[in-house]
User: Fold these one by one.
Assistant:
Number 1:
Amino acid sequence: MKEFDVIIIGAGITGAGTARDCALRGLKTLLIERADIADGASGRNHGLLHSGARYAVGDPESACECIKENMILRKVASNCVEATDGLFISLPEDGLEYRDKFLKKCAEAGIHTQTLSPQKALSLEPLVNPELISAVKVPDASVDPFRLVSANVLDARLHGAEVLTQQEVTEIIKEDGRVKGLKVLDKSSGTVNTYYAHYIVNAAGIWGAKIAEMAGVHIGMLPAKGSLLVFDHRVTRMVINRCRKPANADILVPGDVVSVLGTTSDKVPFEQCDDMKVTKEEVDLLLREGCKLVPSLAQTRIIRAYAGVRPLVASDDDPSGRNVSRGIVLLDHLKRDGVDGFISITGGKLTSYRLMAEMTADLLCSKLAIKAKCHTADTPLPGSEKSVKFSSVVRKAREMKMDTSVIEAAVSRHGSQVEAMDFSGKGSELVCECEKVCRAEIAYAVKVLGVKTLDDLRRRTRVGMGPCQSSYCVEKAAKALAEELGDTSLSEELKKDYLQHRWKGIVPVCRAEQLAQAEYLRNKYGK
Amino acid sequence: MQENNLTDFQQCLKCNICTEVCPMMEVNPDYPGPKQAGPDGERYRLKDPAFFDKSIKYCLNCKRCEVACPSGVKVGDIITRAKLRYAHPEHQLRNFALSSTDLVGGLASTFAPVANPVLGLPLTRQVMDSVVGVSSKANMPSYAEKRFEKWFSSIEETQSRYEKKVNYFHGCYVNYNYPELGQDFVKLMNACGYGVRLLDKQKCCGVAMIANGFVQQAKKAARTNLASIEKAEGPVLTTSSSCTLTLREEYEGILGQDCSAAKEKVCLAVKWLYDRIDRGEIRLAFKKGLKIKAVYHTPCHMQRMGTQFYTIELLKLIPGLELSVLEQKCCGIAGTFGFKKENYELSQKIGASLFEDIRASKAQMVITDCETCKWQIEGGTGMKVYNPITLLASVIE
Amino acid sequence: MRADVIIIGGGQQDAALATRLLEAGKKVLLIFEGRKSEDRSREEFRAKGGSLLAGDKVCRVDWAEDGSRVEAIYTEGLEDTALRAEAYVLCSGRFFIRGLLSEEDRVWEPVFGVDVKYLKDSSRWCDPDFFAPQPFDSFGVIPSEDCKALKDGKEVENLYVTGDILCDGIDNTEELCKRII
């Protein structure tokens, strides 16, 4: 009977990061995930690598954490991070008082700022609200959270960890009051498997409350829903924030070739966490506030809306959930609840995941009496080991008679891992044209990154994430994926599932161009 | 919200119909097509200019994609603007020579008696082919011994006897290569009771400059032309489809110049004439006993403007003219594109289907409004090709 | 320019209708934006002698003073050339071809501004099941019993509406042809 040193529940960024850290330290690790990687908050956030400036005034501890981790991830996750920088703009109604406090607090937290005149800000970002009275440049960055999770998972596996997706935890096994293992339902086969470990780490985000109950401990969690809008192209080069007390819809983030506007914060019941719908009111609010940052958003095509749930740990009675400290919550349940063998890691944010993982792995190692230091702050993730020059890639593309921008797109997504891709023959065939995803990239994703559905493929390659939301490519992509999975009969089901998935995000923004796109989609596949 | 920004790539719904009608895609697998070069590519170029791919140089700017697009995306404009913004110019000397029609035309027509025979020599063409890159096989126009402007100044006085006047933007083709068309235009206008005036100062419209990336020169030409147009009293008529599109739309859409004066005054002669006939202000009297079998080829730029309607309706008025309107296809010349050595084969492949349609029609002549289409069709079929103004001038009483 | 019938097309079957009217002896002008994949019907119409304005769109309408009839229409390509007909037929298609436009909570027909049936609350425009019929499928222009357009409930004398632009999937082709031919 196989026994692991640690089983981690949840392949979001926290679980994936923890699995990687543990694997790098030589712990025998199993990572269990009920759906696909980054299915929870890790796959439904802003894609913002905080400089910490946003928290400088209200939460200096988080601000300090953020800036340190920001600098680290720019190095070790260089392929997942785009160093866009950010602007904090002040509008006339914001006044300059907050900005002055903001500057002081950023300095205290070690966040480098540069104050710009409105003219300078407009020359850098012509579409920003021309009424701005001040702008402060900060080291915000854009991060692709799917890539980040995927790279952590890949590295964990490369260092010996086992990763299983589509496994739902049904029972936490206890013996003499100590957690010993768990039972999981394999969702594809229907079988129930049992795994044992010295320690189980609960990194299941908002669902961690349920997991905790299974272990007989209580964690008070506040599901706080946040909705976001995706615009069809990169409207600004930098992250644009409002320089005021954090509120709704005051961040616009450039993410690859789209722009993401967010976010909102509303308490929702637990039951809703698995099926969240963005409401009309949320879309209206986001647009209204967003136009104060960038007025032209009113004429910009919205391609999708989505919502995620923040795993906030209840610490006070704040109804909005926004000013709850986003501090990292690491719970040693032996100390807290008298239940040995069980640890929960929650709270925090995407930007500080590596630190959360380090803290968790440190605790595990001390409990396992293993002397192993953390190396995640200086070990590059797969894809970020070395920078790939576009020029060398261009040469390769010309040899293959490929459009150079297609290989460049693969490089921008996978960094040095692009060398594991085979662009010859069928490999050079373009599948998703909006996002420039070719067959070689799809083959790589299936072989190396554990892809079973088009939604899994989307997370790793951006297939179907463009303006047409797979109108053009879904059939081609389903066929290609089925072939790569070795069963062409899967093609129809893969396609139908993905269309249903994509539809969910189109419905809340189905007007103007996206209604025309919806009509096209339906005429092509829906009738 | 939806009705603004018609050039906007945002409105692209990825239906790919533009790709289906692209004449370059049919013959050249290296060209990714209008959707990828245009709206798709623009999203990536906005992220990083490094995503610009050289293959978009194959775009002919025929604008058949724009005509076919159900979403109103100005695909051709998006590609042309990207070329101007990101492309590194190649073959600069040759391209500059082909684009600088005033410079080259001016020199050549001054020395026409020598230039024509020399340019016609196989040896000269071979030299141009290998040294400069102008295809030795392309059908090159000859240069007129007497420029149109020179001819016009010799008859200018006769125009003062007409009370009503129109202005004429003749363009470089009429001026340096085929002044007969300009003469036909004057004849036709006079027959309608209108005198002709030339603009104060006129330069090549710049369509070739734009296509070859010489933005500054194109802007300079635009400024001169727009200033002359603004000064002119009355309409400014044209006989060239591409000149018209450039003056009225490309100056603004591509070069960012305010061309409201051109939009207001510049008008294709065929439109001007049709509108007046439709309103009963002008009546044309035709020679008796005409018997002509002709086909009409719609130049791509004419189709983009929608103005082939006027040519066709005017031609329909001619008694004894058996006119067949060809299915619209690109002839492949695309301005200077087909003259370039590296493009000649592609250019001929693109036009092949059109040439076939023309031969199969068994017509006596081809009517078309574009001079470069004329050269290409003459070269590809050996048929006689005439501007509708020329035909009209020859069949009126 | 005067024709018997001007068809403002773009919808499916626009050229089929145009050809039918042409063959019935009418002088027909067909205006449309965009091209349909593998569709030769417009080419066939032109080959039979019909007049086409391809890739063009109507940008201005001259109404009679009391709004009861259309006096003339103008297109982007032909600018100030007035296009007049005994009967105008609106057959401009749905959202994809921009025969119908939308923004939040509003759907409208952009050329003539005729009455359109739709739901005021845009949160009700879609069914969450992609494969189910969608509420927006039934949006569209409301035809009168005589196949004519309505403006604020009043019939427009010489403007007919037909094709997939109509609400509720109404097909009034036969009735329309009876009235025009």
Note: The longest helix of chain A spans residues 60-76.
Number 2:
Amino acid sequence: MTAIVAPAVARRVSVARGYRFELVKLVSQWRIRVIVVACWLAPAAFVAVVSQQSSLPADTLFGRWMHATGWAGALVMLGFAGMWALPLLTSLVAGDVFAAEDRLGTWRHLLVAVRSPRRIFVSKALASLTVILLLVAGLALSSAVGGLVAVGNQPLIGLDGHLLTGGDAAGKVLLAWLCALAPTLALAAIGLLGSVVLGRSPIGLLLPALVALAMQLAQQLPLPVAVRLALPGYAFIAWNGLFTSPAQLGPLLIGIAVSLVWAALATTLAYLLFVRRDFTNSTSDGSGRRAITAGLLPLVVLFGITIAAVTPAIGSDAGITQTKVQQSLAIEFAHLYRLQTKQLNRPDVTEAQLNTTAECTKGGGQDATVGPGNDWRCVVTWHLPDVAAAGTAIYQLDVSADGRYSADGDGPKEVNGYFQVRTPTGDAPNPLWQFDGNVELLSASPKG
Amino acid sequence: MDRPLAVRARGITKSFGEVIALDGIDLDVADGQIHGLVGPNGAGKTTLLGLLLGLAVADSGGLEILGTPVGRALSVPDGVAGFVDGPGLYPSLTARQNLAALLALRGEPTTGIGDALDQVGLTDVADDRVRGFSLGMRQRLGLAAALLTKPRLLVLDEPSNGLDPAGKKHVYGVLNRLVADGTSVVLSSHRMDDVEALCSEVTILATGRVVFSGPLSKLAAENGELDYRLLTSDPETTRRLAGETDGIHIVDGIAAELLVVRGLVSALDELVVRVVQAGIAVRELAPVVSPLEAAFLALTEQQELNQ
């Protein structure tokens, strides 16, 4: 005869404890510690140093204004982060959070301790999200502090030439970084999925960075607007729309929504694949053709569905059109003309009095006046009170496929040539000489 | 008299695709004993240990651990601890931090860490990162982690892997103390000397089936003739006496002074009496292959032949 010993109850570890456990493991890694310190210190140093240099990163959005205001540095950093830093950081954190257990052979230990693959997944996802948020907060705050200390809380010139006060700029900069969280979450979710599906493979670790690189390349191509907006990284670009008046919220909201849907789907796929994994086989890290297909196929389908869903919403004249380029340039010129007038101590004029218009051609008038290219040429016309003749100025425009453009003054030099003007932060180039703008890719709406 | 069971398994099966890892396993692990699990590679030991630790769920059959039926979920009751395929440790944490993180995970105070490290002989390296630990030190730290949970059932896979004699002594001591306090231990090992030194009962697995389960003494008694090495002060006379003893066969000697004989224990007893009565000193008498190992080889080879 035998008897069973007194029954014992099964007790699972709570998500809160699992979360703390995962955080302890993450921050104990020297790699994570180094990048946390770097994200909180390096941007401040970078912005402070660059802001003091005579040569500014004018090819980066807001880079040309780093002498003028401390807020430009945080936006330069955001542009850089969207391209390189955030994809790499999500790779290092989310892309490794599951694969690390495969590498260390600790899955069985963890399962015995926690007793729930579901809770392990949630704990790991939350812990990696926490670290990523910490890194993003460091990049944002550090770059802003570096700019404010080096240059100060000066007004920021928006992408349509209007001036944002220091307070407005602070709010917009914060909002822009918050908007960038959406695509960061999408990349983090892709990182989780890669870490679950590809296991110890280096591709799993680098997946967010590779996906982000592919999306950047795609944004440089003359793709249809619907395809562009359906990519989860578009919100890394669309925050530009916050710096016009009124804000170009359409592309931004679509970009954020798409990013969040990608984040939700990729996380769900990672979860489903993870909880179905067989942990008794120590030689298997859960990867395999079937897992890769199960992880990839739904995202491809989502991409297709998003294109179909976005297409009706973008309007018939989506993309870069002559009308939108002309409208955008005319508005920006008017705002900057007022700024130049003030800096040159001339009598103030209003945008309404200037009644600015622009006439643009592309490719010397031979090409269709649509699409990106560095062969846009525009003639801006404006009026001054009590002056009969209209003023004109010529600009060469380099318009990118994502709607961003840089305008280069081509005369007359008294208007848009290079000369120094006096500003509260010292001498600066004539604001009408070279400037950046943004063409809204969705249907044009009246602005002022 | 009822014998309390820490583990009661009946008709357990587990397959991975086409591969049958466990094929109708019955297992009783008595409470407060060390139960050995041996078998050739691929016999299903790790899978069975995985079931006991809640890492997998059986396809069919009934499993009760510490009196609690284990259902379809990946969950075993509190009081079960251990490791398979080596302990899971985080190299970026120190030994103490590894244990503290485990306790924090379970919501328990960290007061027992020093004692656990002391029991396995790792006090001196408590604040060193595990990255620099040898395999044996990791094994001992894994055991310390299991001890912290105050287990009622300890499941260990090759616990003496990589251990030096001092480390092995620590581990043996810890396991014997645990059993004295009422803990049950299931351990798998390829080292028969470990099993013989520690276990009171053993289960031999081959190709996913149990070929023997019971006390070690029963296994030895059931075993047939064994080869014994016999070293005496007079090899020539000993050889002659062995030839005259019923049931003893002389196997060609390894060396001139060393005699290898084959026979049952009873026949060997008779030979030893004769040798001693002849005024010859017996300097060494040991099985060439341990009874457990011999039984293991015989049973597993037979099982493979039956397949």
Note: Chain B touches chain A through 52 residues (CB under 8 Å).
